[in-house]
Amino acid sequence: MKKVILVCLLALLTAFGSTLVAQGVQESAKGPLKFSMYYSDNATLPFKSDWLTVTEVQKRLNVDVEFEIIPIADYQTKVSLALNTGTNAPDVILYQSTKGENAALALNGAIVPISDYAAWTPHFNAMVKKFGLEDNVNLLRLKDGKRYYMPSLFDVPFYDGGLILREDLLLKYGLSAPKTFDDLYNVLKVFKEKNPGSYPLTILAGPRVLYRMTMPSWGISLGKNGASGTNTLSWDYTAKNFFAGAISDQYKQYVTFFAKLYKEGLLDPEMAEPIDGDRWAQKLATGKSMATYAYYDQIGGVTRTSTIPGFKLQMYPSLAGPAGAHHQPKSKTGAGILFPAATAKRKDFEQIVRAVDEMFFSEENSLMWCLGVEGITYTKQGDKVVFANDILNAPEGIYKSMQIKYGCGSDVTQMIWVNAREMTKYDANYAAINAAVEAIGDVIQAIPPTPMFDDKQAEQAGSLQTPLADAFERWNTAFLTGTKSIDKDWSAYVQEMKNLGIEKFVKIYNDNLQ
Amino acid sequence: MRIRSSSFSTRAFDAFILLVMLGVLFTCLVPFIYMVALSLSSPKAIINNQVSFWPVGFNIEAYKQIFSYPNFFQAYRNTIFYTVAGTAIALVLTVMFAYPLSKPMLRGHGFITKLVIFSMFFSGGLIPNYLLISSLHLTQKVWAMLIPFAINQFNLIILINFFKSMPAELEEAAIIDGLDYAGILVRIIVPLSTAALATIALYTAVFFWNDWFNGLIYLKSKQFPVMLFLRNIVTGTSMVGDAAGAGDKTSIAISIKSAVIITSTLPIIVLYPFLQRYFVKGVLVGSIKG
Amino acid sequence: MNTSPARSRFRQYWQLYAMMVIPLIYFILFKYVPMFGNVLAFRRYRPGMGPFGTEWVGLQYFKRFAQDPAFWRAFRNTLTLSLMNLVVNFPIPIIFAILLNELRNLRFKKIVQTVSYMPRFISTVVVIAILGELLSPSSGIINLFLKRFFDMEPIYFMNDEKYFRWIYVFVDTWQYTGWTAIIYLAAITGISSDLYEAATIDGASRIQQVFYITIPSIMPTIMVMLILNIGRLLSLGFEKVLLMYTPSNSAVSDIIDTLVYRTGLANQNYSYATAIGLFSGIIGVVLVSSSNALSKKLTGDGIY
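^ Those are the sequences you sent over. The predicted structure of the assembly is below.
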C-alpha cells in the first residue's frame, strides 16, 4: 500500500520535475531574422500560415515570423496581460493603439516609444508624408510627447455602411431616394401604410449602429460607440472643444425625432442586445422591415437568402439633419503596430524595427497586403487591375474571397489603405456611392482628439464616466420608447446628469487638450 | 431490490414521475434537436423561418467550414489531452487530500479545512496568478493548463463529505485485518466510492473540457484548446466593446453556431452514459456486509 | 511502545499526514501565494509598474464604492437575484434526483439522466439568443400564444424589468437542474439497500420510504451543498446577466459583476475591482461560517 502512495508521489514529482526542464526558445545565430508577433484572428476569416501574403512577405524580407494567432474576442486580454506583466511578451503586437489602458502602459514604460526610432522607420515616414498625415500622426503622441505605435494610414476614409433601403419598394411606391431625415420619415411612413404589420426601420446589433451612423447629422456622437469614447460628450468641430452632448439641444432634437418614429411604429421596438445577425437578416429578407443602418458587405448575404421577387437593397449616402449630412466620424489613422518594451532589449532590435517597417509600410509590400502578388492574384492591363478568375468568379465577392484565400485586405496586416485602390475590389455601385459621398463633402468627420491624461486624471475621468453613461443609456431608452416624456422630464434628466458631474467631466476633457 | 407492490398510490406515484420526466426530456431535448436541424439546414431556409425540428435544404457546409478551421483537429486533440490528463491528476490529488481531511481525529484537520474554504472566496486576481505560473516556468507548457486547477475546493468538500459518510466499522475491521491507511484508501474506500468519484471525475472533466481562459492566457496558440476557437465563433465579437464597431460588420450564421455547439458538446455528453455504470444502486454497503 | 499521546498519534496516522503533503503544498502555492495580489485593494495599481501597485492609498477604493449609490443598488440586486435563485433552484435538483431514482425503467432513467444534463453545455450566448427568439414581441412563440388564447398585447419580456429576475431564475433551472442533480444521485447510490428492504417488510409505501429513508440519508450532502451555495450568494452567472442587461431593465439587472465590468471598460481599474472582490469575499466567508454554525447546531453536520 505504501508502494501505491509512493508511486503516486513519484508520478507527481516527475511531472513537476519535467516541467522544470525548460524547453527554452531556440535562437539560431544565423539564418533569417526571427521574431514573434501577436495576430488578432477573426473567426470569419481564420488566419492561415500558408496564406500567399504571409509566406511571400517572409520570403521577400528573409524573416521568420512566428505568428501567435489569438481569437479577436480575447485579443485584448492576452495583449493586456503581456504588457502588464512584461513576461512572455511577443516581439511585435499587431492591431493596437494607445487608447485606454495602453496609454498608461506606454507612459509607464511597457511599450517602446517608436517615435524615438524614426530613423529606423523610413517607409512609414514616407507614407505619412505621401498621405499628408503628419498632423494626424502627431496627434497620436501621449503626454510625454512621444508616440508609441505605428498606425495604419488611410488617404480617404471609407463610406462602408449607412442607410440601406429596399430600392425595389421605393420604385414600386413611386418614392425618390431620401436626402434628409424628413425624407426618410416620409419614406418609412409610406412603407408602414402599405405594410401595416411591419416595422420599416430595423436595427442591427442593438441601437448602437443606428446611433453612431445618424447622430453626427445632429452634431453629436454619443453612447457606446460615440466617436470620443466618452459615451456622453461630443466634439464641437468649429469651437474645437468638447461639450456635454448628452444634455444638449441637439440631442434633445435627435431623440425627439426617433421617439416619433418609435411611437408611430416606424422603428423596430426590438432593440435589446444581442440582436442576432441572423434575426436582423431575417426581418429584412422576409419583408418585415425594409430599411436599416448597416454595412455594405452585409447586403449580399441578405439578398441571397430572400425569396421575395425583385428584392433589392441599396445603400444611400448620409442624410442631412440639422447639422448637415454626416456619417460616423472616422480617423485617417487606424490600429497599428507596437513593440513591447522587452523587444528593445534584443540585440537585433534595429533589424526587427526595420523589417517590420518594410514588411507593412513599403510601397511594394503594402500593395501586396492589399492586392496580393502580381501574376497570381491579379494582372495589370495598363493601369487597370484585373483579378484572377478564381477571385472574380467567387460567389462571396472579390473582397471576401481575397481575404479568405490569400490574406489580402485584413485590417490586422494591411497598414496602407488607398481608397481608389480598395474600390477596385468592389462593384461599380459601391464606388459610385463612395463618390457621391465625397461629392457632398465633409460627410466623414475626424475623430475628436484624445486628451492627454496622466494616471490620476484618467482615473478621475473614468470614475465619472460610467455613472454618466449608465444614466444616459437609461434615460435615452426611456425617452425613445416614451416611458419618459421628452417635454416634461427633460429638466429632471438634465439635473440628474449635472448631479453626476457631467460639467466636471467636460472640464477635465477640455483642460487636457493638446 | 425492492419488492413491487402495485397499490393505487404507487401507480399514481409512478405516473406522476413519468409525466415529470417526460416534461424534462422534452424541454431539454428540444433545443438540441432544433440546433441539430439548424446546423444541417441551408441559410436560406433558416432566414425564411422554415426550420423547426427537421433540416430543410439539408447540407453539411457548416460542419465543413468548422473542420476547415486551421488547427481545428490539433486543438481538438489538445482539449482531449487536457481533459484526460487534468482529470486524472485532479482525481489523485483530490482523493489524497480528501481522505485525511475526512478524519476528524486528525490534528489540524479543522484548520486545513477552513483554509480550503477560505480560499474559495479570495482569489489573487489575474496578474498575480499569471506571474506565479510564469515564475514557476509553467507558461507555454501544458502543465499550466493541468496543475493550477488540479484541486477544486468545491469538489474536495463534496468528496470529504462522502468519505465521512462511510461506515466507520469498515475501517475498524480493516485495521484489525492488518491494513494500514494507504491500504484502506486504495482497497476499500476508493472501490466503495465509485459514484462519488465518478461525479467528481465528471465535474472535473467538464471543467477541463470547457476551459478556454487558462489556455488563452498561459499557452501558445498551437497549444490552445478547441474551446477557445469555438467560443470565439459563437460569441464572436459580441463581447468586444469596440468603439469603431468593426465587430458589427461580420455576423456568423446561426447554422455555424449550432454546428459548433454540436461538435463541441457531443464528446463530453457521451462521457456521462459511460460513467453511469458507477451509479448503480445497492453495490455499496450491502455487498460488503454480505 | 509507551510514548506520549502525540507521538503515538503521529505514528498511527503518519500515512494520512503524508498523503496531505503534496496537496497542501499545492494549495499554499496555487491558492494562497497569489492572494498577495489583494494588497492592490489598498494600493494604486499602475499598468506596467509591477503587480502590487505603486503606492498605498488606504481605504480610498473602498470608500469609493461604499459611497456610490450604484454599488449598493448592484449589491441589493445581486442578493435579491441570488436569493430567488437559491430558493427556487436549490430544491429542484434534489427533487429531480429523488424522482429520477424512483423511476423503475432503468433504460429510461439513464436516458433522462443524460438528456437532463445536456443544457449545461449550450453556450450562454446561444441560450440567450434562443430565449430572445422565444420571447420576441413580434415573432416569439410565447407572445403568439398569449395573443391567440388570451388576446394579450405582446410583452417585451427581455426588456422589461418586471420579468428579468424570473427569466434568469428559470433559465438557471433549465441549464443546471440535471447537472446539479448528479451529486444527489451519487449520494442516493450510497444508501444501503438493506434500509429499503427492511422498510418494505415493515409495509412502508414508496412515498414513505422517500421521506423516511432517502431524504434523511442524503441530508448531509444537502446541507453541504446548501452551505456552499449560501457562501456563493454574491457570485452569479456574470455572462448571462451581462447578456440580458439592457438600459430598460438595468434597475434590477445591474449586479456587482456587471457594474465592475462597466467600470473596468471605461478605465482599467484593477485596484477598484480588487477592493470590491475583497469585500465580496469577506461577505462570502461570513455567510459560509454563519450558515455552517447554524447547520451544526441544527443537524450536527457542517462542512468543517
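The longest helix of chain A spans residues 455-481. Chain A has a mean pLDDT of 89.

Shout if you want it in another format.
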